[in-house]
Structures are given as C-alpha cells and as structure tokens.
Here is the input.
Amino acid sequence: MKYLFLIIITFLLNHQTLPAQQTEIIEGQLYWNMHHFEGFYGLEDSIVQMIEDSIQSFAVKYKGNEELKEFLEDYRFLKAKNLLHKPCKYLLTENKQPIRVYFTEADFLKIEETRWFSKMKVERKQTYLKMKMNRIKEKTFFCEEILETVQE
Here is the structure.
C-alpha cells in the first residue's frame, strides 16, 4: 500500500500541467565577450568531446573553486535543456544588462548574414534586435521570433 501511494504521488507530480511560458519583447545590441560561454554550436564532434572531457577533468581537479562551480551548474543546466548545440549570442539590453539568447538555426543564420554584410564595409555597424522571447532562466532566453533588425 505504501508503495502504491508513492507511485501515485510520483505520477501526479510528474504529470502536472505547467503554466504556459510568458513571451517577452526585448530589444538590445548584439555583442561578444570572450568570457561568455555560448555552447558548442558549429563545432566538430571531436572538439566537443575534447572540451567535455576537459570540463569533467576540471570538475574533479578544482572541486572547491566557486567560479568553476557556477560554470558547471550552467553547463549542466544547458545540457539538460538541450541547448549546448543550439546557436547562441549575447545581447546588451537597453538597461545595459547582458543576456544570453538561443536561436533557431534559421533565425541565427539571418542574423549572421546581416552581420557578415556589415563586415564587408569599411566601418563596422552595430546590430540591434527586437525579439519575442521566452525566458529559460534569469538571464537566458530563447528567441521565438525576430521582430526587427537594425544596423547603425
């Protein structure tokens, strides 16, 4: 009887309906910072395997390091959400706060195509985006739709 009760409770907890994700309209400027981890999009499998092996090695070797602990928590979160191999960019919002944005490959290629054309010119232009996004966690989002792209 005790086990039946646990099975029923487990079933009910696992099959609760989750609230619908709220979409947010966010605007900002694309930017790059070498200290931000974007994931494995576009990397060869052998390189990904080498990085994952290094991450596991560092996790054991530097177990008490707080910065590594934060990185590992983020890495595990992205892995659990199947985001490690998705395209990603950082966006500096209107209030100068950086956020991480994951894209569908089609949207990502549109952004990269726009940025590539701007790199062909002598002066580099900044890319500003307005997007409809779902919040995944505090400063991590998934772009549902690019509403506007502007270069200045």
